[in-house]
Specification:
The complex is a heterodimer.
Chain A (H helix, E strand, L loop, with lengths): L3 E4 L2 E4 L5 E7 L5 E8 L3 E10 L2 E4 L6 E3 L9 E3 L8 E8 L9 E2 L3 E5 L1
Parallel strand pairs in A: 2-11
Antiparallel strand pairs in A: 1-3, 3-8, 4-5, 4-9, 5-6, 7-8, 9-10, 9-11
Chain B lengths: L2 E3 L4 E5 L4 E3 L2 E3 L5 E7 L5 E7 L5 E3 L5 E5 L4 E6 L8 E9 L2 E6 L3 E6 L1
Parallel strand pairs in B: 2-12
Antiparallel strand pairs in B: 1-4, 3-9, 5-6, 5-10, 7-8, 8-9, 10-11, 10-12
Classes of the chains: A mainly beta, B mainly beta.
Chain lengths: 114, 113
């Protein structure tokens, strides 16, 4: 039972470069989420998706793009990375529509932008 | 709108001592409540959850939490802390019909030998 896998786990890039963080889940959960975690800010929601081809902005969407062509994949793209996007990024999924809010998390992707 | 407050940013306890991490929520109806644990370098793992029924819920790793509607609280407890419990703990609240939970800022647990 692989659950949610994120790749890469660690990434160093330079300002202005495009970076894509991958998220893959094996449960066929409807909802998927991207969070960033920073000291002093806790978890902040970037984008979420209710189903394939349905995405919506969270609390901090600026500078990020998502897509969801297949239920199991939810990549997050930083089109032009900035130092302020240095963070740990978590992908999560929720098994049910209109559900309880229980989430399953990936291991995280640590991104450093130089 | 729902909200979650974890009033303690850091908690330090000695190994073997009891632990209580506080969580207060704001939500009009009966909430769904969660505690997650995040070990260093890891993702968040569900410790326990409350949906309905018995207000004292048992979770993994010897943790329990009690839902107190009158106090809008869902405090996490453990009778005897182990060094391996050192981690970040997050309380979260969800609601029926909302698939986006609201997280607290987290409490960092430090365990002294």
């Amino acid at each position: 039972d692989a659950g949610i896998t994120q790749s890469p786990r660690y990434k160093i890039t330079e300002t202005g470069r495009q970076v894509t963080l991958m998220c893959h889940q094996t449960w066929s959960h409807s909802y998927m989420f991207w969070y960033r975690q920073d000291l002093g800010h806790g978890l902040r929601l970037i984008y979420y998706s209710a189903a394939a081809d349905i995405t919506d902005k969270g609390e901090v969407p600026d500078g990020y793009v998502v897509s969801r062509s297949k239920t199991e994949n939810f990549p997050l793209t930083l089109e032009s990375a900035t130092r302020s996007q240095t963070s740990v990024y978590f992908c999560a999924s929720n098994p049910s529509a209109g559900g309880t809010g229980e989430l399953f998390f990936g291991e995280g992707s640590r991104l450093t932008v130089l | 709108a729902q909200s979650v407050t974890q009033p303690d940013i850091h908690i330090t306890v000695s190994e073997g001592a009891s632990l209580e991490l506080r969580c207060n929520y704001s939500y009009g109806a009966t909430p769904y409540l969660f505690w997650y644990v995040q070990s260093p370098g890891q993702g968040l793992q569900l410790l326990l959850k409350y949906f309905s029924g018995d207000t004292l819920v048992q979770g993994i790793k010897g943790f329990e939490a009690e839902f107190k509607r009158s106090q809008s609280s869902f405090n996490l407890r453990k009778p005897s802390v182990h060094w391996s419990d050192a981690a970040e703990y997050f309380c979260a609240v969800g609601s029926g019909g909302s698939y986006i939970p609201t997280f607290g800022r987290g409490t960092s647990l430090i365990v002294h030998p």
